[in-house]
Amino acid sequence: DGGITQSPKYLFRKEGQNVTLSCEQNLNHDAMYWYRQDPGQGLRLIYYSQIVNDFQKGDIAEGYSVSREKKESFPLTVTSAQKNPTAFYLCAGAENSNQPQHFGDGTRLSIL
Amino acid sequence: QQQVKQSPQSLIVQKGGISIINCAYENTAFDYFPWYQQFPGKGPALLIAIRPDVSEKKEGRFTISFNKSAKQFSLHIMDSQPGDSATYFCAARRTGSARQLTFGSGTQLTVLP
């Protein structure tokens, strides 16, 4: 099946630990995005990448890091510097930045 | 700073009724306005989108109305069905090389049977 695949669906980590969320796509999309969703709020952009080996900070990048070593993969690391990491994280991809974004089904991160 | 304001926060409609969700934007540097539908535990799915040179776009039961001078756009769902019960997000895409989306805060729609 083609699409944006996020794993795991649920993730629990102890406070102070770094955690990495996976996002894989087999749609040959150049552009990929990470968003954070909190209850009652819209999606907020964390990081985005328009091409392999390049990425840019979004509106709320503090406490997060990404890499884009392969076109298919855009993992997000939530570091211990992120003050309030508990949230629903969504990855999206687009053929390029001018095309519509399509989302994966998200990872819900809970910090214990 | 929220540049796209969405209302209402929640909406309850009877089956067969019309659901209307409104958005207003504050920055004129947007060139594409999509609407997304999200079911619990799922990612948002693109529903319908419009460009600012068009005042209305219709796809099936879903219509976007766009008022460029007022910087407002709205989603109308005709003949609303219980299966339409979901959270709806409007968004606006920024101009420039990054083309980032700015989202509204979402509207939780419940269609009663």
Biggest sheet descriptor of chain B: 6 strands, mixed
Query: Helicity of chain B, in percent?
Result: under 10%
Arithmetic mean of pLDDT of chain A: 93
Biggest beta sheet summary of chain A: 7 strands, mixed
Gross morphology of chain A? globular
Largest interface: A-B, 23 and 24 residues
Structural class category of chain A: mainly beta
Low-confidence stretches of chain B: none
How many strands in all of chain B? Answer: 11
Spatial extent as radius of gyration of chain A: 13 Å
Strand content of chain A: over 45%
Secondary-structure element sequence of chain B? EEEEEEEEEEE
- Low-pLDDT residue intervals, each spanning 5 or more residues of chain A: none
Distance between the terminal alpha carbons of chain A, to the nearest Å? 34 Å
Strand content of chain B: over 45%
The number of distinct β-strands of chain A equals 11
Helix content of chain A: under 10%
Through-space gap between termini of chain B? 38 Å
Report Rg of chain B: 14 Å
The topology string of helices and strands of chain A comes to EEEEEEEEEEE
Query: How would you sum up the global shape of chain B?
Result: globular
Topology:
The complex is a heterodimer of chains A (112) and B (113).
Chain A: E1 4-7, E2 10-13, E3 19-25, E4 31-37, E5 43-51, E6 54-57, E7 64-66, E8 76-78, E9 87-94, E10 102-103, E11 107-111
Parallel strand pairs in A: 2-11
Antiparallel strand pairs in A: 1-3, 3-8, 4-5, 4-9, 5-6, 7-8, 9-10, 9-11
Chain B: E1 4-7, E2 10-14, E3 19-25, E4 30-38, E5 45-50, E6 56-59, E7 62-67, E8 72-77, E9 86-94, E10 101-103, E11 107-112
Parallel strand pairs in B: 2-11
Antiparallel strand pairs in B: 1-3, 3-8, 4-5, 4-9, 6-7, 7-8, 9-10, 9-11
Description:
The complex is a heterodimer of chains A (112) and B (113). Chain A has strands at 4-7, 10-13, 19-25, 31-37, 43-51, 54-57, 64-66, 76-78, 87-94, 102-103, 107-111. Chain A has no helices and 11 strands. Chain A is mainly β and 112 residues long. The model of chain A has no long low-confidence stretch (mean pLDDT 93). In chain A, a hairpin with a 2-residue loop joins strand 5 (43-51) and strand 6 (54-57). Chain A is globular. Chain B is mainly beta and 113 residues long. Chain B has strands at 4-7, 10-14, 19-25, 30-38, 45-50, 56-59, 62-67, 72-77, 86-94, 101-103, 107-112. In chain B, the strands form 2 sheets. In chain B, strands 2, 4, 5, 9, 10 and 11 form a 6-stranded mixed beta sheet that branches. Chain B is globular, with a radius of gyration of 14 Å. The chains are: A mainly beta (112), B mainly beta (113). Chains A and B meet through strand 5 and strand 10 of A and strand 5 and strand 10 of B.
